[in-house]
Write a structure and sequence with these properties.
Elements: H1 2-20, H2 24-40, H3 42-52, H4 54-72, E1 76-82, E2 88-95, H5 98-126, H6 131-160, H7 165-192
Antiparallel strand pairs: 1-2
Helix pairs in contact: 1-2, 1-5, 1-6, 2-5, 3-4, 3-5, 4-5, 4-7, 5-6, 6-7
């Protein structure tokens, strides 16, 4: 989350210049429309995490990030139909201009702003005895992400030939983090309460209750 935010903040001005032909000043201002919500919405993300839970906030963040990055990685395209006689025809051509691109990018920044707060809400809930060390680990991973992702964006662009491969990398990273977080949380819950692992999401399931031994009254 943090690494992707830092990496995009540094690469978006060049992306705007190369793909939309805007000046450096305009590219910087358009990039600010991504940076501001990703930073200013952290208090909102903290309130949302307190109100509805950090896990729900992260689920919503990952869903919005996957949808927006999935749109941004395909800004232009068309459908090619191969005819039986060997000919081809193109249909449903579309092209995303700078305005819709910036709007979708703004939504991506909003999701990251909420997600960055939800990440830190997870720490005291799931690691109450290691808040400091886990918080430091989270910050370290964010810094490393901001260091390694820009070269990865560049190498992917050279390898694929598509400038939008930047958002393809972000899309895959979002899906991996989403699956990893869900598996980790479910695994921790099952390990903490193994007697309940077979009683959720099952038809007519009943949670086992603790029974006390019967006491017979004697005269």
């Amino acid at each position: 989350m943090f690494g992707a935010y830092v990496a995009l903040s540094g690469t978006l001005p060049t992306y705007y210049q190369d793909n939309f032909g805007v000046s450096l000043t305009e590219a910087g201002l358009l990039t600010a429309l991504f940076i501001f919500p990703a930073s200013l919405l952290r208090p909102v993300g903290g309130w949302f995490s307190d109100r509805f839970g950090a896990r729900k906030a992260m689920y919503g963040t990952f869903v919005v990030m996957a949808v927006t990055s999935g749109i941004l990685m395909m800004p232009n395209g068309h459908v090619v139909i191969h005819q039986p006689d060997g000919s081809q025809s193109e249909h449903l051509a579309y092209s995303m201009g700078v305005v819709p691109f910036t709007i979708v990018l703004f939504l991506l920044g909003c999701a990251m702003g909420v997600g960055k707060a939800a990440v830190y809400k997870h720490i005291p809930e799931y690691f109450p005895d290691n808040v400091g060390s886990v918080g430091g680990l989270v910050g370290m991973l964010g810094g490393l992400g901001g260091f390694f992702l820009p070269p990865l964006f560049a190498y992917t662009k050279v390898w694929s030939g598509f400038p939008s491969s930047t958002f393809f990398v972000l899309f895959l990273l979002t899906l991996v983090c989403f699956a990893w977080m869900h598996w980790t949380v479910v695994h921790m819950l099952h390990r903490s309460s193994p007697e309940l692992s077979d009683h959720f999401e099952a038809p007519n399931a009943s949670i086992p209750t603790r029974t006390e031994p019967a006491v017979e009254a004697t005269a």
